[in-house]
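A reminder before we start the practical. When you read a complex entry, don't treat the lines as separate problems. The point of joint prediction is that each chain is placed relative to the others, so the output describes one connected object in space. Small molecules and nucleic acid strands, if listed, are placed in the same frame. In the example below there are two entries. Take a minute to note the order of the lines before looking further.
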Amino acid sequence: MGWREFTWKKEGVDAEKLEACGAGTGGETIEVERGIAGGDFANTGAGASEIKRVIKKLAITPQIVRRVAVACFEAEVNVTVYAEEGTISARITPVCVHVVVRDRGPGIPDIEQAMQPGWTTATPEVREMGFGAGLGLPNIRENSDYIKIRSKVGEGTVVEFFILFNGV
Amino acid sequence: MPLTITIRDIVKAVGAQVLCGEEALDREVNVVIASDLVSDILCCRDEGPFLITGLAKIQILRAAEVLDLIGICFVRGKEPEQAVLDYAAEMGLPVLSTPKTMYETSGLVYRLGGKSGVYSPPGRPD
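Here is the predicted structure of the whole assembly.
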């Protein structure tokens, strides 16, 4: 089995335009990158907090700041719960944020299934810590304008999402 | 006149102990959510909710940062480790603990006039 891919975009969103925003064309760009260690629950979410602090300083509505923070947090939690290690990197432009979360881990055999709310393979230990409700990937999608997931069993997963600051 | 409640009102109503953030007890509580699941908490679409939870772990504070929680009340007598409280104190976040259950705590806060936060879970992809 090779790399599998899943993409989804909100209705009316121009994916090409977003890719251009994410590439940082047309304005000042801020980049944030952090490592994520598998199983390190004490630090999961640190990347989301840092990204949130940066975008809070821009003139963005609190609703959008929350959407970015929630999506980043869920993506980090996924790496902590399932993978050995990973990184979260965000490119923040004046019009959008482009986040890439990569991990080295088991991969997702069926991404469509993992996108269904409530579907999870989390262990009871993980659930005891308040995670593993099967809402991670669905919550990232819910808060994004455009999302791309690539995964290969036995290798890892790349979750990439874009959130616009002021509509398309 | 709309009824406003503060964290201090909640402390009294549920007989809670204030573990940290004493200086911020007069914060107004706009909406309240109650859950032990982090992803469920992150489905709240309101700004700055007050959280009732039995999950007394560090990850709840990460969720608190993400959602700008204005305060937390741990139920069933749960108290987090000192490191968690130190982190909350640094954030200036009021943290309470009550021996009451989540059901009873929620009921008492509801009776005070606490409004429910909007729970908006993700749908299925189109």
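Discuss with your neighbour: The first helix of chain A runs from residue 15 to 22. What might explain this?
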